[in-house]
Amino acid sequence: MVDIMEEETWELRLYVAGQTPKSVTALANLRRYCEEHLKGRYKLDVIDLLTHPQLAEGDQILAIPTLVRKVPEPIRKIIGDLSNEERVLVGLDVRPASRN
C-alpha cells in the first residue's frame, strides 16, 4: 500500500527581493534541502518582489526572504536565509531523508 503523503507534490514559494546575499543563500539552501529530502516531489516558485510587489499581499509577506509551503496544507511560513536545516525541516514538517 502506498502512503499518500509520501507521494504528494510539495508546493513551495520563496519570496525574495532581488539578488541580495540573504535571498541567494535562502534559495541555495532551499534547493539543497529539497533535493535531499523531497527529490522529485516538489515544485518551487521563486517570486521576486522587486518585479512583482503585488504578489506579497496574497501570502501576507511582511519580511524577506520568506518561504511559504502551500501544499500540503496547512500553509507554513519560514522567514530568513534558511541556513538552519533542522529548523527549516521542522518548520515545513519534512521528515529528514534517512542517511545511509
From TrEMBL:
Superkingdom of source: Bacteria
InterPro entries per record: KaiB-like, KaiB_domain, Thioredoxin-like_sf
Coiled-coil features, chain-numbered ranges: none
SUPFAM superfamilies per record: Thioredoxin-like
An annotated GO BP: rhythmic process
Residue intervals of the KaiB domain: 13-94
Protein name, UniProt field: Circadian clock protein KaiB
Organism whose genome encodes this protein: Hymenobacter cyanobacteriorum
Biological classification of the source: Bacteria, Pseudomonadati, Bacteroidota, Cytophagia, Cytophagales
